[in-house]
Amino acid sequence: MPYDQLNELFNKHEYFIHLPQNVDPFCRSVAEAYLAGCKLICNDNVGCLSYDWFKDRETVRKELKLAAKKFWFHVGGVIN
Predict the structure, then answer these.
(1) What angle do CA 33, 27, 52 make, to 5 degrees?
(2) Which of 9, 10, 42, 66 could form an S-S bond across to 36 if both were Cys, CB 3.0 to 4.6 Å?
(3) pTM for this one?
(4) Domain ranges of the chain
């Protein structure tokens, strides 16, 4: 499915299920489905759910908007 159509797809569904066998570090699909309003059915292997800020849609939205800036800030600190 083309990326630009994912939000439309998520909005057509009430639930998003993701039950990976292995731990994943974040899982962008879960975050995107959550922000689109889906209720999540996940196991403990979904990394994004382990972040303390992954508690409500507005907080998740704010954190994800800042993620790239925070990443490059920390990379710059290591390089300098």
Answers:
(1) 90
(2) 10
(3) 0.85
(4) 3-79
